[in-house]
Amino acid sequence: MSDASSAPKSEKQGAYMEPPTRPSTTTPSGIEVPPVVTADMVREPDQGMPGEFPFTRGIFPDGFRGRLWTIRQYSGFGTAEESNERYRFLLDQGQTGLSVALDLPTQCGYDPVDPIAKHEVGKVGVSLSNLAEAEILFDGIDVSGISTSFTINGTASIIYAMYCAVADKQGVPREKLTGTIQNDILKEYVARGTWIFPVKPSMRLIADTILFSNEQTPRFNAISIAGAHVRDAGSTAVEEMGYTLANGLAYIDELIRRGGDVEKFARRLSFFFYVHMDFFEEVCKFRAGRRLWAKLLTERYGVKDPKALMFRFGVVCGGSSLVGAQPYNNVVRVGIENMAAVMGGAQSIFTAAFDEAYQIPTEHSAEIAVRTQQIVAHESGIARTVDPLGGSYYVEWLTDQMEDEITKVIDEIEVYGGVTKAVEDGWLQMKIAQRAAERNRKVDSGETVIVGQNYFRREDQNEGVAELFKLDPQASARVIEKFERLRDSRNDAEVAKSLAALEKAAADDKENLMPYLVDCCHAYATVGEMVATLKTQWGEFEEPVRL
After folding, report:
1. pLDDT recorded at residue 61
2. Total-model pTM
């Protein structure tokens, strides 16, 4: 048998059929693991109790004994009607929170009738261009009784304003709203690309949403600082956490500049990550990040309120760790990642469906994803005790190592000049691109084992699955038809008045734009109209030439 890097291809059996002779002795983040870890190798043997600073063992004293994590499946496609039906189905299957997937036109600030957007309407998420569509999306769903997450960034403030308007329409007091909007624009510039405005006005919008939410929707998290997409773009677990914490510090600095009270707004900062397949590294990533965040807020900003120091996060089990080859293997992958998320102390979890590597999940695959969480929650016994891996010499040692490496990543960014400069110069984008190239090289060479893809694969294997998701080809046409009806029926004078007020407010850096955006939503102004209005004042972000 040969090592992974030299595994031979066999015409009869398939590519890289010979497994490596032994597992790698380093984690995917490059941490060399000793064969045995002993007590004297652990830097901080006494981690304190769960719910106590620095929260290494979790932010709640009773962990999941008092309350399980939120089961929040990411979903949305086609029309608001179709997505509403899927949400009702998932809630009937025991899902305990909503996670709204929005299509690319909505994410990028285009209306469905825009020529650049027409061919993408409803394809990777639901089209949500105006309040009328949002009312349909949440029809029959009491927004006061469900936690709702929105994966949205460039237009996050607009979608949040729309959600507030939905609550107003349902007669729900805004203070009862719970959930989050992703609203992390810094990682968009380096990982996903659904940015719209330049960095500085985008940071202003984020500050506006958080400060407004603190007063109007105090139980709602107006930002979920997301390392997930940075991870999928190519970064390691260490870099994912390091870049994310650095972004969090940048948002805190902007909020303080705007006059925010860190003891108050820090209580509603939340985070969002991917969980990949190296079980112990993922668990320790969360333990280290939780501990380091509490230390950073204490040391840099003098935060004393324990609730403001709590590192609250949701996760996705899946993402780029899923593969199209032998897709049913993804059920096992997601199950392992789900266990790591729970042992790492996540507050909400989305388990990707096994077919999500290549299509919108079917009802069948989405149900299996929900059942995966329910099996872990109710059959594994994992939630009976808090931090079940705490006290393991290896886990505590690896937590120490992860904290040290994450700190190095943050320090490197600060030496460069901070996150904003690193993004505007393209330095951070280039770092992630280089890491992605390295990751792909290791998979292609066989150095990284992907079961069913570069190892243990038959040449004659049929990769198909029993059921394919079929997006209604008329969905886009129906969205556009509804959009045109709305424009014909709304009060144009009220729309013009609300947009003019928004434009005037955007010109004044001291104004909070959220009340104006809510007014625009109530007037049935569209996402595209609001974005176009802001562009007149701010322009658009241009990627650095060096990239």
Report:
1. 96
2. 0.92
